[in-house]
Task: structure prediction
Amino acid sequence: MNTKMNWMLAAILTFCGATVLTSCSKDDDNSAKDDLNLPEKVIGKWIIDEKDGKPALTNQKMVIDFKSANKVSISLSYMNFWHRNDLFDYTIDGNVITCANQLDEHTFVNTIVKVNAIDANKMDEDFSNIISIDGVEQIKMESKETLIRITDDYNQAILGMWEGRSTGAEGSEFDDGENHRWEYLADGTFRYYHKVDGLWQLSDDVLHDYFVDGNLLCTRWQNVGEGQKENREWWEIESIQNGVMKWKALRQREDGTTYTATFEMTKVK
Result:
């Protein structure tokens, strides 16, 4: 399965959540809205901010960068998908953005985004994926989403060695409350250090990848040893200023309630 096909399947899982419809109808007033000037206004980098009227969990977020009138890139980390700046084609007709792809010889996925409103900083849209098998529509998935424009890009600022810990009241899933060190390298890998007898020791992970697109930081790692599984964590970088880096993330508890995790670290010279 190529990159575009992977993204389409990931979008089904990431964007649409639990809203699954077996049939659909088109609104009569769903005509093209050329007055939105969508081809011009959509250009740039966007991140999901809300899904179906609720703040989007950080682990549901992805960055979409409309680079030209027909090329857009996507960055996401979800399940076994790991994509940074993957490029694919799209078209605009009025206020509708469309991308179509064939997953295999039987399965065709059509992604349709109807933009209801857009300004310099925010875009409201109806998102849908239609899955057809052997030419017959089988499933339609839908969600309402709000995207916000992002202009910050911390891809270079994050490079180097940092020391810090979780600062939120509930902590972080993978944090023990102690200081640790992370060294972010330009090749998309990172090194993790913890203290042993007062000395910093490098963790011998078998997997240690990351990427930053805009303000979205995605990491994945796997500790050495039999039975160890791959772990993933997403953060939104709030700021990198004067040698201090701050993160935040909206997380969900098992009972469905949410909380905001925070993290702070300082640059190690």
Confidence is low (pLDDT under 50) at residues 1-8, 10-32. The helical segments are 3-16, 38-41.
